[in-house]
Backbone:
């Protein structure tokens, strides 16, 4: 049975204020742990400052054909938020005028936005160097109107980044829903047929691994080897790189942590694994995240907690000012321990 | 009634504290321990599974926790972990049963 989004359930954690309150109370309020800001101060990195802006990550809507248990976006079929073409126009102007090399399109299932193809075509026409689409794979088979997407991706030289929690059925289906694994494999095979993930094709197909539970991801290189061997042997599937991403304690994953009584241990694990050398590579330093209404955030996770970029830097894509954004202080909270734990975590995998 | 038990999961994090009363030997132990688990002729993944199996054989709850988490981090599946436990169980069970030969030898010698 398809689970409902927190929003559709009127769940208390659908409120970002509730989430932030929860994150700042408990183990932090009791003094058992110091807050993220203190860790930055101790490493002389507070306030956290951006590096050169390289990626405009645009979330074109929270609608999705899947309802994954760990989804930090709380996406699903019942989410109707969708970016308009007008807002996409503003994003394209910003990309062009500021020569930002990478457009990273995400969702929900970004392909479900009716203007998705237009957005990609325009970005391609305007010479954006790299266009990334974060695809959940099953959308490619969900409806005949999506069946030609692998070809569309290839035509525009898109880098496809796809989630696949594990190279076996049971773990993947537990996290993402029954039948998701088989459909994902079929979608990967279709992408392979177009040349994706094949050496020499120039078509990059990356996979994203999130731990399916309350633990940190292991070594990215070793997991990539395991995934490559197993997927090749069992399904003749190839891909380019595996990115390991740490689950951040927000939204549906936070709900899971609380319900399964893993919250305190998980936070403790993140905090104990704090790695100062991961600070330089965190994604908020080279990325601006834009939501479906055009509001700007320091990262995708801040977007889901509705922590906008600092007011002095501008908070809407219509007031994008590279200089102001470059001088801004990045806004952090307790969820940020997720990006600095162990080998570090970003949308592009480990950072340290 | 006290809720204290002999084993407290929080004590695992205090493992390093054993250095407090003998720094030199603890250092030697942890250096050796860490070297044991590095990639070698056996992969770190294989070593993690061996550790998990041994942890069950020596019935160390701390080690069971630690190597279950370690296995999950490494992407070792539940099926692989359970198979490793059956190997440990088979050796343990077999070790009891194989002494049956001794029992049989003795019984046969004593019997008419």
Residues:
């Amino acid at each position: 049975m398809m689970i409902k989004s927190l929003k559709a359930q009127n769940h208390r954690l659908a409120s970002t204020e509730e989430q932030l309150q929860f994150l700042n109370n408990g183990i932090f309020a009791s003094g058992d742990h110091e807050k993220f800001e203190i860790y930055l101060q101790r490493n002389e990195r507070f306030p956290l400052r951006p590096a050169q802006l390289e990626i405009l990550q645009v979330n074109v809507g929270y609608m999705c054909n899947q309802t994954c248990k760990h989804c930090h976006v709380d996406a699903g079929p019942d989410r109707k938020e969708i970016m308009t073409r007008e807002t996409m126009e503003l994003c394209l102007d910003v990309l062009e005028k500021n020569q930002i090399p990478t457009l990273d399109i995400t969702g929900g299932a970004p392909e479900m936005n009716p203007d998705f193809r237009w957005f990609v075509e325009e970005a391609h026409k305007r010479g954006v160097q790299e266009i990334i689409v974060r695809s959940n794979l099953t959308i490619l088979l969900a409806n005949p109107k999506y069946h030609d997407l692998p070809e569309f991706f290839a035509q525009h030289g898109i880098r496809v980044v796809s989630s696949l929690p594990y190279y076996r059925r049971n773990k993947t289906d537990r996290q993402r829903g029954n039948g998701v694994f088989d459909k994902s494999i079929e979608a990967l095979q279709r992408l392979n047929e177009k040349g994706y993930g094949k050496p020499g094709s120039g078509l990059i197909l990356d996979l994203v691994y999130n731990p399916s539970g309350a633990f940190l991801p292991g070594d990215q290189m070793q997991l990539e080897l395991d995934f490559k061997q197993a997927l090749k042997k069992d399904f003749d599937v190839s891909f380019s790189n595996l990115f390991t991403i740490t689950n951040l304690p927000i939204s549906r994953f936070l709900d899971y942590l609380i319900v399964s009584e893993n919250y305190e241990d998980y936070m403790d694990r993140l905090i104990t694994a704090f790695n100062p050398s991961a600070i330089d590579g965190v994604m908020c330093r080279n990325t601006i995240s834009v939501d479906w209404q055009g509001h700007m955030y320091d990262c995708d996770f801040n977007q889901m907690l509705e922590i906008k970029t600092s007011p002095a830097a501008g908070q809407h894509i219509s007031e994008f000012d590279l200089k102001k954004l470059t001088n801004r202080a990045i806004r952090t909270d307790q969820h940020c321990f997720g990006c600095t734990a162990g080998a570090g975590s970003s949308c592009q995998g480990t950072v340290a | 009634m006290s809720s204290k038990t002999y084993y407290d999961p929080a004590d695992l994090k205090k493992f390093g504290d054993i250095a407090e009363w003998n720094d030199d030997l603890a250092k030697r132990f942890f250096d050796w321990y860490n070297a044991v688990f590095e990639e070698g002729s056996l992969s770190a993944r294989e070593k993690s599974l061996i550790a998990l199996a041994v942890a069950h054989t020596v019935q160390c709850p701390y080690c069971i926790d630690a190597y279950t988490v370690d296995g999950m981090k490494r992407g070792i599946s539940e099926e692989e972990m359970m198979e490793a436990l059956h190997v440990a169980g088979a050796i343990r069970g077999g070790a009891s049963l194989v002494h049956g030969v001794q029992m049989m030898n003795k019984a046969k010698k004593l019997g008419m």
The mean pLDDT of chain B is 94. The CA atoms of residues 25 and 31 of chain B lie 10 Å apart.
